[in-house]
Amino acid sequence: MSTPVLQIENVSKRFGQTLANDNISLSLDKGEIVALLGENGAGKTTLMSILFGHYVPDSGRVMVDGQELPAGRPRAAIRAGIGMVHQHFALAPNLTVLENVTTGTESLWSPRSRRREARAKLLAISERFGLKVDPDARLGDLSVGEQQRVEILKALYNEARILVLDEPTAVLTQIEAERLFATLKDMAAQGLSLIFISHKLDEVMSTADRIVVLRGGRHVAERRASETSKPELAELMVGRAVSRPVREPSDPGDVVLEAAAVTVRIGGVDRLKAVDFRLRAGEVLGIIGVSGNGQAALAQLLSGTAAMASGDLLLFGQPVDALSVKDAVTAGIGRIPEDRNKDGAIGEMAIWENAILERLSSFSRHGLVDRQAGMAFAQTIIDTFDVRGGSPASRIRLLSGGNMQKLILGRNLIDRPRILIAAQPARGLDEGAVAAVHERILDARRQGTAVLLISEDLDEVMALADRIQAIVGGRLSPPIPAQEASTRRLGLMMAGEWEGETAHAV
Amino acid sequence: MRFERREHRPVALVIATPLIAVVAALAIAGILIAIAGAPVFEAYWNILKGAYGSRLSATETLTRATPLILTGLAAAVAFRARLWNIGGEGQLYLGAITVAWASSHLIGSWPSALQIPALLIMGAVAGMILLLVPLWLRLRFSVDEVVTTLLLNFVAVLFVSMLIDTVLKDPTAFGWPQSQSVADAAMLPKLLARSRLNLGLVIAVVLALVLAFVQSRTVFGIQSRAAGLNPQGAVFAGVPLGRTLVVVACVSGGLAGLAGAVEVMGVKGYVTTDLSPGYGYSGIVVAMLANLNPLGVVVAGLFTATMFVGADGMSRAMGIPSYIADVIVALSLLTMLIAVFFTQYRIRR
């Protein structure tokens, strides 16, 4: 067999007390797709940063085509043909696609920009790999999926032969993700070599040729995709057998929240169009749909951050005209926002401040904040919900995604809310954290909380929900009981095909 | 080499930071002093002597620090909430002229005990109003307040200039554009006889203490910090964004207006267009030097005043242009910003 295009040999990297990479070796052949699988904090991103020259390893080396790469030199990595597609795109939103792609490729001293050649080259690449994008579009106007395509194009424009993608699907919808993986397979077939970082078992199984599992900074296993299974990978990744919690049958109580023909208009557009739903105590109502179909408006309405244009909303049987955040919190509505970093937390503020921010009035007297009580409250959440990596006084930004989500869940669930609005509660979390979040949601349901679960993840909805409605273009389908849900039927519902099935309405 | 965010900020580092920054700035400015042909250490000794060497110079430095602390607090409080109030200068002048007008036309006969508080409040309210206009434009039409507050400075200063040349002109000032004087009963009590040092300094320091308390311990403090750090997250948590910003604007504009009132009632007694040598703008520098911490503002205000007053003395003694004070303050700001960066990041290679 020929030399691998890429070899990582015995790489170690220590950050303070933590050994982020412990003697990791990895190789990649031409035309191969390798998945780097591991939970958050397993050392995947560190390893790739070393590969790309962002970090200098404490020991070990990186070889491309048998040649050792100088450590800590991103330029050398680019020249050797390594391209990186970051999870958070390194692109300028105010420039066009073409400008973004050519940035950094031309000498600053060159008197003119070779736009025409650049455009031709870009179009040729985009043609060859089926990555369609308008070179003159302003980057900020593109969807997230398109922006990611630009990142890939930029790497290819720099003659990358080895492409590294850091959690490429974290920001994509399911359809965009499927399209991306088709492209990646095509690229491998054309001789490129790819590494993609992921913690999602499905995509790893369906796309990679070979899977390398990292855990706690160590290379724990390596499997061919054809010779392994999802349960085996999950166990290797987490280090123990994990199972997602199972929903037990329950006996739903009274209707606590009812919407009749509710319309929400945001920015002059009807994001929710005359939707109907009823939510009962002790049940989970799942709302599925491709993102951007009105989920955000629904979550905002019930979280108190968006107003209703028309329709009737009954909260515990009482009509509500306008729900403010304060009303929602006092009424016992727990709120898990879709975007924990933007909505759910003030990153630079302490954990205890984040814990009490939405209920400051219960932690203050005459305008003075009771710091002691706030700290104690935060500590209770940390203990009860197993939040790791921070104390009440440390900034919340220091928590990992899963732990931040546990804290947000905790501040909502600790007082036993009557209603829980959970928008994409497990998005971006690793397997262990997903199980923990699901367990908490089912726990709340068992205790009589009415849960509205808004999610794009069909597995999640089918596992947790008692009844399921689909949201399409701002409209809600009639509900179907979870027992009648199949992937196919849900797929049809998400495509808007529920007319004529209204007879099933519960 | 790359920068990594620090997970913890060592207390010693946070305390040492401003000191290191000032020393670094003085070292760099020393090069300029050497180029100008003067012995560096002697020059700095002369700055210190010029600022604190005599009773007169020491009281003068403290008098100079008073408006700087007030405008510094005005900027710090606004910037904390990401309200970019660049209009301190205009708010200061409006506060000043309001006081001069009210005391000469309206309540000049009132006794000190009533007149002084009334005037201070009126000066503060004038500053508030001038900041509420840009804030309303921002909340209603998303107009960038950096532009509006900055431009309103010129409007306010020219407006004051018009008033003191017309309706509020002092007829006894030999034709100079100068406002009528405030009543004697409106003058702030002196802290020391035969000096210009007045109650204004006490007011400024007390307000700094009050603000430090409000920002760290009150609901308003937490909400305004949340609104500044992450407006979207603050809204989700139920922070009334508009109302919080209105209060912040009232405090910020009020402090800047108060700076003008104190300067008139404590030092000058009347308004001219050179009442403020850019106190409103220097306040921004003071706030940044203090890393937006209210107590730090007191120290930073003193430091800036020391440099300005001391450099005058040094310039007379050594024949070096007193502009060196501007250079030192500007360099301090730069080194301070770099130092603050290093309290948040560390270098890794």
Give your account of this protein's structure.
The complex is a heterodimer of chains A (506) and B (349). Chain A is an alpha/beta fold and 506 residues long. In chain A, 32% of the residues lie in helices and 25% in strands. In chain A, strands 13, 16, 19, 20, 21, 22 and 23 form a seven-stranded mixed sheet that branches. Chain A has a six-stranded mixed sheet with strand order 6-7-8-3-9-10, with helices on both faces. In chain A, strands 2-1-4-5 form a four-stranded antiparallel sheet, with helices on one face. Chain A is globular, with a radius of gyration of 25 Å. Chain B has 349 residues and is mostly helical. Chain B has a domain at 66-291. In chain B, strands 1-2 form a two-stranded antiparallel sheet. Classes of the chains: A alpha/beta (506), B mainly alpha (349). Chain A binds chain B through residues 54-56, 72, 303-305, 324-326, 329, 335, 337, 342-349, 353, 357-358, 360-361, 364, 367-369, 371, 394, 398, and chain B through 2, 7-8, 217-223, 225-226, 229-230, 232-239, 348-349. Chain A: It is a peripheral membrane protein. Chain A: This is ABC transporter ATP-binding protein. Chain A: Belongs to the ABC transporter superfamily. Chain A: It is found in: Cell membrane.
